[in-house]
Recover the amino acids of this structure.
């Protein structure tokens, strides 16, 4: 936001088969717009990419050391480059009909970096290894008939896997040395496995309704009975909250177990009989899972507080299996319908639901609102939404209804009335609504998702008293509001998720001293606050964004004297690393930040504000400027709407 007004799964339907200010919300005001069609709400963006080999039955999927997505097929290992997802490469496994299943990344030498793909071969009872380059695949035999399932990198640098039919947990070192230990409970059918935050291995026992825990030395610690009888625990992952989360295939639930072995929650999935399978932690601080049943056919998301959202997959009866986080702030999953699917997390000011940020415009002369739909440095499409009277100002851009498309937040400068346009794709306004007027001493200073429910919220600041307020939104209503604190004499300079917990935090700046402060938020409550440091007052905060793609927001700076651009890479309240880009002439203004090329890293949007200017430029960023270019030029009466957009 810039504060300015200018894991793996197994195949087959058979789970055992190897295959704030409080205001009266009743007062709704009309915000005049031209007449548009009112389509149904769009679902979050899911894109599917067909696998070249027919009936390949993809199963496990993981992010490889080369930044590609690697997945298993009936007798192949597949590779998909997220920057060119339509080009899928397949590599034949030497043993025919081996049925590769789970897949994970592991080292080549103990203690080394992840450098190879390791996978289970359920029918052949083998473990396979492939390097990201070349066609050579090595295979290592395990107990005959063991049907190895899921594989995961352990805390000891070895690969650990479940052997469903032999009732064992297996271990293979980077050198290929194998060992196996029997699960204490007989006929348990161990299925999912993951490394826990406590340095141990956690696994599911599908047939005996337990969660198991063992040390990396191969000794078992305990087995914990799942509260719901016959729940059918399937797959398990480490969550962002320090607990383990697992799917319950028969009980239709998502379970949570602490590292102390306490099953604290079992959350019922809204869609009945959804048959949840794969589960993974997302870069947004939530858990994502697949719903395999044809009557569900969804990708599910659950917050650590137990709030669900389900996203329908376009292909019917797609039978989604495994799911993993990609390098691009997207979740990638396998489909029994012979596809690899992608669901992207919301990008700031994404008006087309394509996982890329776009640019909102308004003509100062006519009040017309328009947008450029972007693809990196290129404008893919342009269009207009309609014209609005000049007393109405766009004060925010956020997805308020959780449909994956950014919406527009308005305020009437005369009355203080806030209002929202819920947008659909193709430059359509889906629905509009407003709230009772709010005293203009209350300023809208930010937007974000403060409670992690996938819907944008509104941040307010009362200048006379320094009171902060938040409206937690649900589309056109604010069912909950609150005031997390008071801080007079400071300026709210931005919002962002600085600790990567999936909930928006507040960035503060104290002008007289140059001090930067951060409030780490948990909904309407202040979780932690502190100073991130101080800078000379010739430097000003010009934006926030995730510039290194680590899932945590960073702070963008510019020197008023030299035009130099710099960034603080943040880790909660602390600066993890600082660095500069370069100096830019002062006629070029940083208007906004956003992920314009969909690589999971924030970029910088520039505009030439000199007389007769109007050129638009974009820096595509990593830790350096990877690419830059002119995106077009527009007369200066057309103003980019950068307020509270990122």
């Amino acid at each position: 936001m810039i504060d300015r007004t200018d894991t793996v799964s197994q195949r087959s339907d058979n789970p055992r088969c190897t295959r704030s200010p409080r205001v009266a919300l009743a007062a709704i005001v009309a915000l005049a717009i031209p007449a548009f069609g009112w389509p149904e709400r769009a679902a979050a963006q899911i894109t599917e990419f067909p696998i070249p080999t027919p009936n390949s039955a993809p199963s496990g999927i993981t992010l490889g050391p080369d930044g590609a997505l690697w997945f298993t097929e009936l007798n192949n290992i597949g590779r998909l480059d997220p920057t060119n997802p339509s080009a899928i490469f397949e590599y034949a496994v030497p043993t025919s009909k081996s049925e590769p299943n789970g897949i994970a990344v592991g080292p080549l030498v103990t203690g080394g970096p992840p450098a190879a793909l390791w996978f289970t071969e359920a029918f052949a009872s083998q473990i396979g290894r492939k390097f990201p380059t070349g066609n050579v695949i090595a295979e290592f035999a395990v107990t005959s008939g063991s049907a190895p399932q899921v594989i995961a990198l352990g805390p000891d640098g070895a690969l650990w896997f479940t052997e469903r039919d032999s009732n064992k947990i297996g271990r293979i070192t980077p050198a290929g040395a194998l060992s196996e230990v029997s699960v204490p409970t007989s006929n348990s059918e161990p299925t999912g496995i993951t490394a826990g935050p406590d340095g141990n291995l956690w696994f599911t026992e599908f047939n005996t309704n337990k969660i198991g825990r063992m040390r990396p030395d191969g000794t078992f610690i305990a087995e914990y009975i799942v509260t719901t009888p016959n729940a059918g625990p399937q797959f398990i992952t480490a969550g962002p909250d320090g607990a383990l989360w697992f799917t319950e295939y028969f009980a239709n639930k998502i379970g949570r177990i602490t590292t102390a072995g306490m099953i604290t929650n079992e959350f019922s999935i809204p869609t009945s009989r959804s048959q949840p399978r794969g589960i993974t932690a997302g870069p947004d601080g939530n858990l994502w899972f697949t719903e395999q049943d044809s009557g569900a056919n969804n990708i599910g998301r659950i917050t650590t507080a137990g709030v669900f959202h389900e996203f329908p997959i376009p292909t019917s009866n797609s039978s989604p299996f495994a799911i993993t986080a990609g390098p691009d702030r997207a979740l990638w999953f396998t489909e029994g319908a012979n596809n690899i699917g992608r669901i992207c997390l919301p990008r700031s000011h994404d008006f087309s639901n394509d996982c890329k940020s776009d640019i909102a415009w308004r003509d100062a002369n006519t009040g017309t609102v328009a947008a450029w739909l972007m693809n990196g440095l290129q404008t893919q499409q342009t269009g207009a939404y309609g014209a609005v009277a000049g007393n109405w100002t766009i004060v925010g851009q956020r997805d308020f209804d959780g449909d994956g498309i950014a919406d527009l937040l308005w305020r009437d400068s005369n009355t203080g009335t806030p209002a929202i346009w819920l947008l659909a794709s193709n430059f359509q306004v889906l629905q509009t609504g407003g709230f009772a007027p709010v005293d203009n001493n209350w300023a809208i200073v930010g937007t974000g998702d403060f409670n992690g429910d996938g819907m944008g919220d509104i941040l307010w600041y009362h200048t006379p008293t320094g009171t902060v307020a938040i409206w937690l939104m649900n589309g056109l209503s604010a069912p909950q509001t609150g005031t997390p604190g008071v801080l007079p004499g400071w300026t709210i300079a931005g919002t962002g998720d600085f600790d990567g917990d999936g909930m928006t935090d507040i960035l503060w700046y104290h002008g007289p001293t140059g001090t930067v402060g951060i409030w780490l938020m948990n909904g309407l409550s202040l979780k932690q606050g502190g100073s991130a440091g101080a800078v000379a007052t010739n430097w000003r905060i010009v934006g926030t964004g995730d510039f290194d793609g680590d899932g945590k927001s960073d702070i963008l700076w510019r020197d008023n004297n030299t035009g130099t651009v710099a960034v603080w890479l943040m880790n909660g309240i602390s600066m993890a690393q600082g660095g500069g880009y370069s100096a830019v002439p002062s006629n070029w203004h940083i208007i906004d930040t956003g992920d314009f090329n969909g690589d999971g890293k924030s970029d910088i949007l520039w505009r030439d504000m000199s007389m007769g200017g109007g050129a638009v430029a974009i820096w595509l960023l990593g830790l350096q400027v990877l690419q830059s270019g002119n995106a077009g030029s527009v007369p200066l009466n057309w103003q980019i709407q950068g307020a509270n957009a990122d």
In short: The longest strand covers residues 378-387. Residues 1-43 have pLDDT under 50 and may be disordered. Residues 285 and 502 are 4 Å apart (CA to CA). DSSP finds no helices and 52 strands in the chain.
